[in-house]
Amino acid sequence: MSTWFLTGASRGLGAHWAEAILERGDNLAASARDAATLKPLTDRYGDRVLALELDVTDVAAVDAAVDAAEQRFGGIDLLVNNAGHMLHGTVEEVSAEQARAQMDVNYFGALWTTRAVLPGMRRRRGGRIMQVSSIGGLVAYPALGIYQASKWALEAMSQSLAAEVAAYDIHVTLIEPIMFPTDLAAASPQAPRMPAYAHAHEALYAGAASSGFVPGDPAATARAILALADTPNPPLRVLFGINGLDALRTEYAGRLAGLEEWDHISRLAQGVAGRR
């Protein structure tokens, strides 16, 4: 029996994951901004659930929640950082408060919970940390720049972390959901739109329509996350959903082509222009 710590457990993908974790017999420390939303889990699964009311942006509260979970279950085997929201707006449209809140939840919230579980995982020399990123953590689309910035930050931190903790048999995996019909967009803030950026919003929707992304079944992601938990050597990154590889091939081919095209500027900056 394993013990999980799952943030954002009351809705969206997290709700499916919480149910699947408990259904298979594991323990779960489930967090949400409103602990009352977790009552159906505690009613059904009893002492195998620790319902936590948690704002992941509050460092002291995160430390206390992780400590409570470790006291209750004896340790945390798997952390899933799922809490987050998706700010919709162009770079100029979003307010300073919205931008900071986006980073506080999606990046710093995951950072605080990750830091909180690491001492226990290092002592036990083992653990899994699953960071819920996004296809937007690997590519960037217009009108979602601040949201995607929070995920790009999560990607960099997690890749460095994976190298840092491998010696302790702690595995880090970035989960990259592509397109799933959840309430994420409806429950997330939107910046007031400026007429000057109508083209950017239109480009986002046009890009989504032409991407080839197909909405997936949110319930099916529960089977995927349990399969990851049971994999002896999990990947650093894994896409949840189909057709993302095509988008990534285009993205990375374009990056390399651009860097190669402007390599003469790179060499000029180095002081070796014209050399090969």
From TrEMBL:
Keywords: Oxidoreductase. SUPFAM superfamilies: NAD(P)-binding Rossmann-fold domains. InterPro entries: NAD(P)-bd_dom_sf (IPR036291), SDR_fam (IPR002347), SDR_oxidoreductase (IPR051911). Pfam families: adh_short. Belongs to the short-chain dehydrogenases/reductases (SDR) family. This is Short-chain dehydrogenase/reductase. It comes from Asanoa iriomotensis.
